[in-house]
Design goal:
Mean pLDDT: 90
Largest sheet: 4 strands, antiparallel
Structural class: alpha+beta
Strand order of the largest sheet: 2-3-1-4
Distance between the termini: 26 Å
Radius of gyration: 16 Å
Strand content: 15-25%
Order of helices and strands: EHEHHHEHEHHH
């Protein structure tokens, strides 16, 4: 899994999503953009990928598209419309773009370019997009926004000594239990 961090300046969200999808298709990987203000850390996204892949393998996925399934798990929600809140919006958005090889794809070792992995090659394409300005965004989440989105109250935060990332990881994991 590769994570590309930066600020996106998006005029047309649908066009941006299509461009990311085309990068994914060209390299045989899944590409999903997140509003970085909702992503607490790398583990948040790693766990979402792991659980989405498991749901797909079991035929328990809600979305037909792997990128959307990953988004649902990262959001801790089965409702795609509500999960989309974690995606990129029009305007300037601190962004994390996840690039991950689909375990169901048949990318052959011989198909890899000089940069190595299909993930790294696709990440390089994302980094070079005209709407993307590289910047550190991972871990730069907005605690108030995260608490509101994941429905985390002060009492719950106090019980875990204010460890918001741990609570978000729990919400991601609990999505399987809530099915």
């Amino acid at each position: 899994m590769e994570l590309v961090e930066g600020v996106t300046t998006v005029e047309d969200v649908d066009d941006f999503v299509e461009r990311l999808g085309a990068v994914g298709d060209e390299h045989g990987v899944t590409v999903q953009a997140f509003d970085a203000r909702y992503v607490v850390d790398r583990t948040h996204l790693e766990r979402a990928v792991e659980l989405a892949d498991r749901a797909i393998a079991r035929g328990e996925n809600v979305a037909r598209d792997r990128a959307v399934e990953i988004l649902c798990y990262a959001a801790g929600r089965r409702q795609i419309e509500r999960a989309l809140t974690m995606g990129v919006s029009a305007g300037d958005t601190p962004t994390i773009v996840l690039v991950d090889a689909d375990p169901a794809s048949n990318v052959d070792e011989g198909d890899r370019g000089s940069d190595g992995t299909p993930e790294r090659e696709a990440a390089a394409v994302v980094e070079s997009m005209d709407v993307f300005d590289p910047a550190e965004t991972l871990g730069e989440y907005d605690p108030e926004r995260v608490c509101e989105f994941f429905d985390v109250g002060e009492a719950e935060l106090a019980v875990v000594d204010g460890d918001l990332p741990a609570l978000v990881h729990e919400r991601v994991a609990l999505l399987d239990v809530e099915k």
